[in-house]
């Protein structure tokens, strides 16, 4: 009797595993579209490659963002925080009323929930990062005012 139950349980696990395997998605780089960063949210030349959206039960989204020298985000915050993984170059991140901090290829940056900040390339080099953030009640970012030239140069 126990052997029959164990066999049935094994079959159910294999079946569940097969169902999970059917739901694996692969998004090829060629299928994604790179867009110009909106002047409403960025200063300078920025390109955004949306990696994955928050949809179909997924609460996080991600993008690969490339900033040309001097380019940056506007001030903003994230209701569930944000993780940045710097993939190339050198950039800066600044928390409201905080000091500018350098970020480089290989660095991983955690910005806690609702912390007002900006990030972008250093003045003389490009910087790219992968940005990951979760949604809270359908919202993953609150965009605020632009970063002034004086704020950028501090």
Q: Can you put this structure into words, describing what you see?
A:
- There is one protein chain.
- By secondary structure, this protein is an alpha+beta fold.
- Helix content is 17%, strand content 40%.
- It has 2 helices and 12 strands; from the N terminus they run αββββββββββββα.
- It has helices at 2-22, 149-153; strands at 34-36, 42-43, 46-52, 60-67, 72-73, 76-77, 82-95, 101-104, 108-111, 117-121, 127-134, 142-143.
- The strands form 3 sheets. Strands 1, 3, 4, 7, 8, 9, 10 and 11 form an 8-stranded antiparallel beta sheet that branches. A two-stranded antiparallel ribbon has the order 2-5. The protein has a two-stranded antiparallel ribbon with strand order 6-12.
- The radius of gyration is 20 Å and the shape is globular.
- The protein starts with a helix and ends with a helix.
Largest sheet: 8 strands, antiparallel
- State the order of secondary-structure elements, H for helix, E for strand: HEEEEEEEEEEEEH
* CATH architectural designation: Sandwich
Average residue pLDDT: 87
Characteristic terms for this protein:
single chain, 154 residues, alpha+beta, Jelly Rolls, eight-stranded antiparallel sheet, 17% helix, disordered N terminus
Fold topology:
Elements: H1 2-22, E1 34-36, E2 42-43, E3 46-52, E4 60-67, E5 72-73, E6 76-77, E7 82-95, E8 101-104, E9 108-111, E10 117-121, E11 127-134, E12 142-143, H2 149-153
Condensed summary:
The chain contains 2 helices and 12 strands. The protein is α+β, with helices and mostly antiparallel strands and 154 residues long.
């Amino acid at each position: 009797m126990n052997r029959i139950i164990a066999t049935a349980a094994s079959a159910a696990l294999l079946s569940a595993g097969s169902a999970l395997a059917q739901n694996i998605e692969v998004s090829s780089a060629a299928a994604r579209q790179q867009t110009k960063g909106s002047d409403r949210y960025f200063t300078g030349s920025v390109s955004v490659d949306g990696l994955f959206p928050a949809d179909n039960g997924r609460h996080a989204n991600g993008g690969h963002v490339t900033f040309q020298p001097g380019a940056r985000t506007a001030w903003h915050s994230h209701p569930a925080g944000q993780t940045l993984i710097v993939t190339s170059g050198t950039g800066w991140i600044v928390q409201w009323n905080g000091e500018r901090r350098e970020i480089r290829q290989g660095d991983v940056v955690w910005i806690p929930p609702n912390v007002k900040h900006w990030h972008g390339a250093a003045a003389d080099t490009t910087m790219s990062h992968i940005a990951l953030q979760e949604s809270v009640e359908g919202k993953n970012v609150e965009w605020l005012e632009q970063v002034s030239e004086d704020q950028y140069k501090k």
